[in-house]
Amino acid sequence: MQPQPVLRVHELTTCFDGDDTTVVAVDGLSFDLLPGETLGLVGESGCGKSVTSLSIMRLLRAPGRIASGRIEFDGRDLLALPEKAMRGIRGNRISMIFQEPMTSLNPVFTVGKQISESLMLHQGLSRRDALAQAEKLLDLVQISDPARRVREYPYQLSGGMRQRAMIAMALACQPKVLIADEPTTALDVTIQAQILHLLRDIQARLGTAIVLITHDLGVVAQMCQRVIVMYAGRKVEEGSVDDVLDRPQHPYTQALIRSLPDFVDGQDHDVRLAELPGIVPVMTPASRGCAFAARCAQAQPRCSEAAPPAVDAGSRHRVWCWARETGPASASAANAMIA
């Protein structure tokens, strides 16, 4: 029997209101997150990944607003909670690792003080006990000499250490859900591997469910069990990592995979990477059809007229594409394109 989702996002729509128009950043997004699972949200910059995370945490600022939908955590709709109740969940039961640790950490407070704040707020620890726990957390995320680092300021730490400090802060109250927004951005490959290993290790210890936001399909392959591919605020494909990466059905997913370098025996064969022409469109409430239609080599006339339906491409593998509606023949043709 499958466990109940710890987090359920249903038909989430998030908008940004301008003087002349409204931009739809997230459009009817739905997904479930199971206990102990790692779910990847993938797509290029501007597809709505980070806005989704801020919507879940209810950290959007004007002109951003959640226009509709439900976000359920342990059966409670977060969007219906008063702000005081939400503060009891945010940073406690649901935590977030932000994309830029240097700008997310307060430069005028020590790392230990910033970690201990949530412990004092949510667990009622004294300042002394919270600082001692912060030191243990820095040790948990494998920062050397935590007794010294806990008294240092963010500028005194390397990029990798700052990212580890952010992880320690997010894990301070042992949350049930951790949202990691590009946790390895701007880190070299060695530190990136260490951070990913650390997240897997901590998840194994604490059983935390993770929403991993990234544009890196290699990170998804290492970390995730399921993946959702987003484009222009919409979900275009979802399924297990093996299904989506090995048998992509949506033309956008196929384009993402074709853009990756192909290394054989450690050697690059000097092949020009495939590029995707055009830019991500700005979606408004009046937008019709598939958002990818203008950039898609497989587009049909109806793609610009109506949003595509969900098509079953296998066990829990779904794709939103008119070209796949005809079934197995189209799926075989799609796979042949990336072979």
From TrEMBL:
<keyword id="KW-1003">Cell membrane</keyword>
<dbReference type="Pfam" id="PF08352">
    <property type="entry name" value="oligo_HPY"/>
</dbReference>
<comment type="similarity">
    <text>Belongs to the ABC transporter superfamily.</text>
</comment>
<dbReference type="InterPro" id="IPR017871">
    <property type="entry name" value="ABC_transporter-like_CS"/>
</dbReference>
<dbReference type="InterPro" id="IPR027417">
    <property type="entry name" value="P-loop_NTPase"/>
</dbReference>
<dbReference type="GO" id="GO:0005524">
    <property type="term" value="F:ATP binding"/>
</dbReference>
<keyword id="KW-0472">Membrane</keyword>
<dbReference type="GO" id="GO:0005886">
    <property type="term" value="C:plasma membrane"/>
</dbReference>
<dbReference type="GO" id="GO:0016887">
    <property type="term" value="F:ATP hydrolysis activity"/>
</dbReference>
<dbReference type="InterPro" id="IPR013563">
    <property type="entry name" value="Oligopep_ABC_C"/>
</dbReference>
<keyword id="KW-0813">Transport</keyword>
<dbReference type="GO" id="GO:0055085">
    <property type="term" value="P:transmembrane transport"/>
</dbReference>
<dbReference type="Pfam" id="PF00005">
    <property type="entry name" value="ABC_tran"/>
</dbReference>
<dbReference type="InterPro" id="IPR050388">
    <property type="entry name" value="ABC_Ni/Peptide_Import"/>
</dbReference>
<dbReference type="GO" id="GO:0015833">
    <property type="term" value="P:peptide transport"/>
</dbReference>
<dbReference type="InterPro" id="IPR003439">
    <property type="entry name" value="ABC_transporter-like_ATP-bd"/>
</dbReference>
<keyword id="KW-0067">ATP-binding</keyword>
<feature type="domain" description="ABC transporter">
    <location>
        <begin position="7"/>
        <end position="257"/>
    </location>
</feature>
<keyword id="KW-0547">Nucleotide-binding</keyword>
<dbReference type="InterPro" id="IPR003593">
    <property type="entry name" value="AAA+_ATPase"/>
</dbReference>
<protein>
    <submittedName>
        <fullName>Oligopeptide transport ATP-binding protein OppD</fullName>
    </submittedName>
</protein>
